[in-house]
Amino acid sequence: MSPRRGFRHPGSFGSSLPERGLLLLVLIVLLQGSLLPFGAASSPDVGHRDEADVHAEAEEKHNFTKKPFPVLSFEYKHIQVPFEISLWVLLASLMKLGFHLIPRLPGIVPESCLLILVGLLVGGLIKLAGQKVPPVLDSNLFFFCLLPPIILDAGYFLPIRPFMENLGTILMFAVVGTLWNAFFIGGLLYAVCQIQPNNPSDLHSLELLPCLLFGSIISAVDPVAVLAVFEEIHINELLHILVFGESLLNDAVTVVLYHLFEEYSGVGSVTVIDGVLGVISFFVVALGGVLVGAIYGILAAFTSRFTSHTRVIEPLFVFVYSYMAYLSAEMFHLSGIMALIACGAVMRPYVEANISHKSHTTIKYFLKMWSSVSETLIFIFLGVATVDGQHNWNWTFVTVTVVLCLVARVIGVVGLTYVINKFRIVKLTTKDQFIVAYGGLRGAIAFSLGFLLDKRHFPLRNMFLTAIIIVIFFTVFVQGMTIKPLVDLLAVKKKQEAKRSINEEIHTQFLDHLLTGIEDICGHYGHHHWKDKLNRFNKKYVKKCLIAGERSKEPQLIAFYHKLEMKHAIELVESGGGAKLSSAIPSTVSMQNIQPKKPAPAKPEDRVLPKLSKSREEEIRKILRSNLQKTRQRLRSYNRHTLLADPYEDNFGEFLLKKQKMMALDKKIQDMNNYLTVPAAPPDSPTLCRARLASGRETDFNPTRQQKADTVGPDPQAYSMKPALDSVPTIQVDLASPQSPDSVNILDEFQRSEQAAAAEEGEDDGGLMMKAPTRPHERCNAGEMDAGTREKLSRCLSDPGPHAEDEDEDEPFLP
Amino acid sequence: MGIWQSLSGPPEYRQLAEKTGFTYEQIGVLHNRFKHLSHNEDTLRREHFYAIHDLAWNPIRAQIIEAFFDRRNLIPPEEGSLEEIHLEEFVVVMSHFKPPSLSMTDEERDSVRREKLRFLFNMHDSDNDGTITLAEYRHVVEELLSRSVHISKEMAVSIADAAMLEVAGITMGHMEPDEFYEGITFEHFLKLLNSFEIEAKMNVRFLNMNPSTVCY
Fold this sequence. Notes:
The complex is a heterodimer.
Chain A: H1 2-14, H2 17-32, H3 43-63, H4 76-101, H5 105-108, H6 111-128, H7 139-156, H8 160-165, H9 167-195, H10 208-219, H11 223-233, H12 237-267, H13 272-304, H14 314-331, H15 336-354, H16 357-388, H17 395-420, H18 430-438, H19 444-452, H20 461-490, H21 502-522, H22 527-546, H23 556-574, H24 581-584, H25 591-594, H26 614-635, H27 652-674, H28 686-698, H29 704-712, H30 716-727, H31 746-754, H32 758-765, H33 775-783, H34 787-798, H35 803-813
Chain B: H1 3-7, H2 11-20, H3 24-38, E1 44-45, H4 46-50, H5 61-68, E2 84-85, H6 87-94, H7 106-124, E3 131-132, H8 134-144, H9 153-172, E4 184-185, H10 186-192, H11 198-201
Antiparallel strand pairs in B: 1-2, 3-4
Helix pairs in contact in B: 5-7, 8-9
């Protein structure tokens, strides 16, 4: 261990000069400050101190001893607690930062290992400096501050589909597997303690119940450790959800076993009735946790229905309701983890439909940030706590524990898989079993539970803690570091990096219905049948109550399509407007390539491309630009509480508009170049038409807005084509086909689909005057659109519902 | 449910078992269901399927039922469609939903995959010309959305168009503007759903089904 520490230390410090300075500063301050236990957040202390200060001041006033006013004063105690908390967080963040600056290192050693080493180092330094090491991994701190963000993050972004499809297997591993592990380890440990004849230590005094308690603490797979390691190895979805799901759902078993054994280890014996009560208690704890979570989740979803006017606090509801769910569950000693998972999973689909896109991004980033910092802190604290703890090293106990943990895990997984495979359609292979067994990492939850034990009832608590730490270190270091090479070696299927495409979505839905249909034909009420029933119930009743407005009626496929479109638009924004148009749009294949060619009306070969003199063009552009600036100035009003007041704040609407225009333009140009007649199919979807309309309206019906967007575009052709085509009233293009793409004005399109074609028919038939003079009128029409449209519009701008981007966008946040 | 009687069951079972890979027991179960649906007649007609109550909710009901009468889904595949099906056709179509076995070589897995995708492809390719044209794809999407009343047809069309555009993008790469993408061929279909683990998804449990469940 020490050589690695030596290797890492200079590496991280030497990576860059400012960083080194900062880290040194952090360490120095950490060492110098008389470290107060910030875990037991001592706010009363602070209050007390303040009171004392006030008293002192009052006395001074009484005495009328006038001192010169202190220009600069120093009082560290005053800010000590929050300051040190900030320092820890800073240290954690800088460490995380540092690891990713070192090349190659993250590929070899998992971050969790490095963080534990940092923790050991910091703890050691504090100890060397002769200070009291703060009890950082205090159980309250851990369970109330550090754990919830990680679990909420996991629950909110839980991949529901694979989770539900494998729920049986996951529950089997989580419940039966954990029970087996606890009793196997506890029982055999007790046996080993008894049979050692010449063991001089106090192992003999160990009774069965403490052994079982220890077994139940040590047997639970830890979600934090599993997440930390599995996110780095990018294993396929099935294995990931199996191990991760197990680590989440075994919480109920652990809670019940822990309380059961802790309760009775004082008494010394457990009767059959206690066992039965324990089983009942398990169901209460597990189902109660889920119920509490679901209730809060539904409340959150319901609340989010009404937040359309105060978008700023939307994310807060998600966090607060989830935290309340966790606390409420803990209040009844239910499984808080399951409550959080249920809360996150239940609220997500509804909340996402209700909140704005920005709020969703905020939620995502906040969750990722919190969970990432929490995770980092947990591992660092684990290291610190190791240095700090009073250890009671017992070779027999520690070795036997580690060996038993491994053996129990392997036997449990292999045995359970044998049973499960009889029921699974997709069987678990030997490789899968190996990864599931090997991925059973233990972590900080076990440590905190061990830490909670009462020393009076458990005289060997320190020995337990030592053994727990060793098991954690063994799993995190040995298994965590070797699992990646092993996955490569065994050629276990990796996660598919491909983005979810619209075709896959169509086929997923198609397959769902197909399988439901086949099950119905077979007369077999299976998995698909019930899923279908549930979906219909959800669509019919639940969505109506929990989702505001139009969205409640939106089928999944359409929702997905909207998201995809929004994603394209966002990609376009990120790629710098229309500059890299061809890369943002799936390929160079354009709409006309797939449109069936209907026999076209004879097209005049001598169609004249309208031309403009350069000076005229310049003049037009100038007019457009000045108009645009005026409108934009009018729009720039700042309001702290309404993020969505003007979409120009983030240029999003603008870019969306630009993209549309670019696409339409691209198409037009191609059409013109190739003299192809494409029937006037809608050039793009209603969504984007609505979006465009919305942006159009924001400009106070300024007809020049759209042309502006074009001229801004980098496509050189835009300069010559667009003004010529659309903005000059004097040019009349003689078009043989009334449906020529040149005439396809998007607003017309919109109207065509929304209102019947009354007004537009006249225009089309009349051989196409260019649109500029009529535009303002049209705009007004459009502007008068009913409130329903308006709602759609604003949603369109604000809400893509981000599901689609999760998979690929997750990468940047995660280690 | 007649497990033993089906083990020694009629000789046609053996033939079916060889053809489809079902066990006698599974065939017995399917046979019972067949008799139940056909009211103890020898053949099933479309109206028998349309009478299944639970199926009424299915947006792609017509396509599912048509798949049973499609000769292309038989072993070996033929052209055209049937008016009524016997037990053999019924079981053969069902065999497309058989889960893959654990001990399968990669080649076998690949052929299972092809066979399942072929079934899907045939469902989309209604005129049996070897390509899914845009019109056919639009029809599929429309059917999928047909249960949600207030969805305009344009929405379905634009989704199908976007999907088709994506297919063309994936399979053809670059296309000249005057080229025309005819439709999705089976090869393209395979390529398109490459990451879609069909062999793990397109499965129904046949063993533990209860044929006596009344679905009316």
